[in-house]
Here is the input.
Amino acid sequence: MARGIDYSGPGATCNRDPDTGIRYAIIPIHNLGEGAHDEFEAVYVARCPHCAHELPDDTHFTTRSVKRPGGSIGNVQATDCPACGKLIREDDQYGDEADAQVCDDGMYKAHLDSSQDVWFTKSPYFTRAAFCSPCAPGACYLNSPCDDGERCFCPGPEWFDDEKAPFPIYSVATGERVDVERAS
Here is the structure.
C-alpha cells in the first residue's frame, strides 16, 4: 500500500507526540471490538447557555433572587457570565450532550470524534500506516497499514474481538512485535 501524502508539510509536528515523534492514528470505532465504546467516558464542560463561553473550574455561584415566569420571585444559585454578562443558573451550566468522549486510563489517551473515529494520541503500542486525509494532517489511518508507513500509536490487541488486529502491533518501549497473530 502507498504511504499517501503528509498534509502536515515538511518539518511540521502536528498530530504527533512531541516526545517520541510517533504520530497520532485514527480508526473508525466500528473497526474495533464490540467493547470499545466502554473504554470512553463522557466529558461535560461548564459553559454559558447563552454564548457558549467556557466557564472556569473555580466559577462561584451565589444565591440570587430572580423573577420566574409568571412574575413570582425565587432564589437560585447563579452567576454572571464573564463573556456576555447574562445570568447563568447553576443547573444550566452543563448541556444535555457530552462535549467529548475520552479514554485516559494511564495506558491510552484517545478520543472519539463526532464522525465516530477514534484518535489515539498515546499508547504503549504502535504500528505502521499510511497518512490520513487532509482533515488530520500528519496523522495516520489505521485502516491503511503499510510496511514502510509512519510509526503511529495504535490500540493493543485487547481492543479487537478475539484480540486480533488487522495490522501488526509493536511495543513503543522495545520495538518488538507483541501481537501473536494478525486477523485475516
The two ends are 16 Å apart (CA to CA). The first strand starts at residue 25 and ends at 28. The chain has a mean pLDDT of 91.
